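Hey, I was hoping to borrow your eyes for a little while. I've been staring at a protein lately and its backbone has me curious. You're getting the sequence in one-letter code plus the fold written as C-alpha cells. Would you mind checking whether the C-alpha cells look sensible for this chain? Here's the protein in full, and shout if anything looks odd to you:
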Amino acid sequence: MIHMMGIAFLFALFFRIRDSDFGEAIDKGQLRYPAIDEASGLVCSLNNPGYFWTHNDSGDQARFFLLDSTATYKMTCFLEGVQAHDWEDIARMKHGDTSYLLIGDIGDNLARRATIAIHRLEEPKFNNKQVVDTIPAQSITTYTLRYEDGPKDAESLFFDPLEKKLYIISKRDLHVGIYEAALPAQAKDTLILKKCASIPYTFITSADISSDGQEILIKNLLNVYYWKRKPGESIPEMFRRAGAMQPYQAEPQGEAITFARDGSGYYTTSERPFGLSAHLYYYPRKKPSD
C-alpha cells in the first residue's frame, strides 16, 4: 500500500511539474565573489536593467551587492548607521517614479526578537565606475515592526504595489502565517504586523511579487510555488487557493527568488555552505505553445 501511494504521489508530482507555468532551470553563471557567501535575498533591479541586488544572511555588515545577469559582482552598498542583525530578504517598491529597496532584518531563529526592522532606501544607480557606495543615514527610513501574536522567524517578504502593503511570511510553522502592514511615509511608532492568512507549507525561505502585482512566487528549500491573482482579488484571498508547483533546480541552500524585471521568468540563487558553489538560475516562462 505504501509503495502504491508513493507511486501515485510521484505520478501526480510529474503532471504538476509538466503542466507548470515556467520551464526548467538555465544556469546563468556561478556566484564567485568571496564576500557573498550566504546570499539570502535576491531582487531584480529596476534602475539597473539586467542587474540584481543581493545580500548575505546573519553575521555580515550592513551591506548589499549588485550582480549582473551572469552572477558577476559589480558593486557594494553600505548602509550608514545601520546594524545588520539578521537580514533575510530584499524587495522592491515604487512611489511615483522613484524605485526603493526594502531590506528585511526579519530573521529570528529562536523567535525571541520583540521587534524586527525593515530598511527603506532609494535604489542606487550603477555607473560602471563606482564599486563601493555608502547610503547616508538621512536617506534611510527604518521601520520597526511587531507581530500581533508574538515573535516569529521569517525569511520572506514582498510589497504589493496594488494595495500598497508589506507582507512577511513566517518560516517554521507547519502552516506558515502571512502578515501584513502598511508602511507610512515616515517611520514613527512601532507598526503591528497582522496575520491575514496562512498557507499549508513550511520552511519558507523567500518570496517575490511581479512588478504589476499580479503574480507571486514563494519557495522553500525544496519547492517553488506560484499564484496568479484573479481580477480584484486581495493577497489574503489569493492565498486561500493552493499554489502551483514550479520547476526548481536543487541548490546547496537556496534562500532567494525573484521575478525577472520584464516578467519573462524567475531567478534563484543560494548560500554556499561548506564551500559548495552557488549559481544564478533562470526559469523562463513557457509560451502558450510549449
